[in-house]
Specification:
Layout: H1 2-26, E1 42-44, E2 47-49, E3 54-55, E4 61-62, E5 69-76, E6 83-91, E7 97-101, E8 111-116, E9 119-127, E10 130-141, E11 145-158, E12 164-167, E13 176-181
Antiparallel strand pairs: 1-2, 3-4, 5-6, 5-13, 6-7, 7-8, 8-9, 9-10, 10-11, 11-12, 11-13
């Protein structure tokens, strides 16, 4: 009887241990529980995946908002002297789109651009006898604070002469990236 009792007790403990290990092992904690993603963001493995145009830990920030405003531009091109002028960045039609006025201190119409997080892209476009394209990024400075400056690398090509004016786009040609400050 002693051996039977030991066998029954062992079987009960073995069954209970198997049940507990299967129950605890099959529980997966929902890493997205309690996480709310704004602007149609979707939680995946505990982090929000933001739709285009939004960023932040909960997709709460409109990425292009950091670029909007009036800027003071300092630049030196490969074929233009150092210059300082004002330009303005406003919103375009879509959540990622921007328009830049007085770009290159030349264009009367607006230059189209778009934003991905802290990077601005100027797609290849032709306006007023020139082709323009480039990219830049926001950065923080001691003087202008968070998102207070943009380093913009771009090129303007005159369609009549095919002469490029480079602003840090191709390297050691005497040009520098354009610096935009608030």
């Amino acid at each position: 009887m002693n051996n039977s009792f030991k066998t029954i007790v062992f079987a009960v403990f073995a069954t209970a241990a198997t049940f507990v290990s299967m129950t605890l092992g099959s529980c997966n904690r929902d890493k997205c529980k309690g996480i709310v993603c704004a602007n149609n963001g979707v939680c995946d493995a505990g982090a929000c995946q933001c739709p285009s145009g939004y960023q932040g830990s909960n997709c709460e920030t409109v990425a292009r908002a950091k670029f909007k405003g009036n800027w003071t531009v300092n630049e030196k091109g490969s074929n233009t002297d150092e210059a300082q002028y004002s330009a303005s960045i406003g919103y375009g039609a879509n959540i990622t789109d921007l328009v830049i006025t007085n770009f290159f201190n030349y264009f009367k119409g607006s230059i189209n651009a778009y934003v991905v997080n802290d990077t601005i892209y100027i797609p290849n476009q032709q306006l007023e006898g020139k082709v323009v394209f480039g990219y830049g990024y926001l950065y923080t400075t001691n003087t202008y604070g968070q998102y207070g400056a943009i380093s913009l690398t771009y090129e303007v090509i005159d369609t009549a002469t095919n002469l490029p004016d480079d602003f840090g786009f191709y390297g050691p040609d005497g040009s520098l990236p354009s610096t935009w400050t608030r």
